[in-house]
């Protein structure tokens, strides 16, 4: 294997053989579930490992099982000098923005995982971007002027008082997805056996979309703190089902559950999506399962007798 998995400076110069690199990535993709992705550091590596089967990633073939859709990018020297520590060796993109490798990564970034590793003073002995961001203050007007996403109340505490933010905090809080609940509606009272009409509006203010597949569930929690009913939500209305007639009458809390699609971690609350709204409670079972965003109360009456 190349040194540290970065594919440079290996003793046997393995990284110079494209067939070797392709074999390594092919094995990684074989071991991973088809809906999971891996990453390579330098964009050209992604072309190399695909060989003659190379495909550009776009909206048409994204999130499929082809190699192009399952390989993202990991910049292992993010902002570490003009070439990002050697990631962009063709044309340093700070001095020449027309770097074709950077453009290649940018075009595919909406459909594949893109992340990186920052250099910082404690590791390298001199100041880098992260050291500056940690001490540089940030104001709402600067975020707006840069046309960056900004959550309602991000520069306030839970009482609505203004709070100071640093550039580092903003970047930290918006890396990946940042799902926020905009509005949700459902009837206050309903009879068991009837259809629960539920509408929800979400917005993503993060830098990325959700990469791994997941199903959105509507959930009802009873007064004993147990999940009494769940229903997956999708665009196929034929799959929507009414509340079960056996659902006991009583008071419930409507919840939004976004678990990971993988069976092994589907019920693990650590992998469920928590909305970023500060006023939406987060509930997990005592054993660490589920992970549900609590929206509000609903009263269920008993089903009508047949």
What is the structure about, briefly put?
By secondary structure, the protein is of the alpha/beta class. The chain has helices spanning 18-31, 43-50, 67-70, 100-108, 121-124, 129-133, 140-145, 167-174; strands at 38-40, 71-78, 114-118, 137-138, 165-166, 179-185, 189-191, 199-204, 216-222, 227-233, 250-257, 282-283, 292-301.
Task: Give an overview of the whole structure.
The chain is of the alpha/beta class and 306 residues long. It has 3 domains: 3-121; 136-174, no CATH class; 179-301, Immunoglobulin-like (Sandwich). The chain has helices at 18-31, 43-50, 67-70, 100-108, 121-124, 129-133, 140-145, 167-174; strands at 38-40, 71-78, 114-118, 137-138, 165-166, 179-185, 189-191, 199-204, 216-222, 227-233, 250-257, 282-283, 292-301. The strands form 4 sheets. Strands 7, 9, 10, 11, 12 and 13 form a 6-stranded mixed beta sheet that branches. The chain has a 3-stranded parallel beta sheet with strand order 1-2-3. Strands 4-5 form a two-stranded antiparallel sheet. α4 links the parallel β2 (71-78) and β3. α1 packs across α2. The model has no long low-confidence stretch (mean pLDDT 86).
Specify the CATH architecture of the largest domain: Sandwich
Structural class, judged by helices and strands? alpha/beta
* Number of structural domains: 3
Please compute the radius of gyration using only Cα atoms: 24 Å
Order of helices and strands: HEHHEHEHHEHEHEEEEEEEE
Our measurement of the CA-to-CA distance between the termini, rounded to an integer number of angstroms, reads 68 Å
The overall strand count is 13
Instruction: Profile the largest sheet.
Output: 6 strands, mixed
What percent of the residues sit in helical stretches (DSSP H or I)? 10-25%
Could you tell me the CATH topology label of the largest domain.
Answer: Immunoglobulin-like
Q: Low-confidence runs (pLDDT<50, min 5 residues)?
A: none
CATH class call of the largest domain:
Mainly Beta
Tell me the number of helical segments per DSSP (H or I, 4 or more residues long).
8
Strand content is 15-25%
> Can you tell me the overall shape?
globular
Mean pLDDT rating = 86
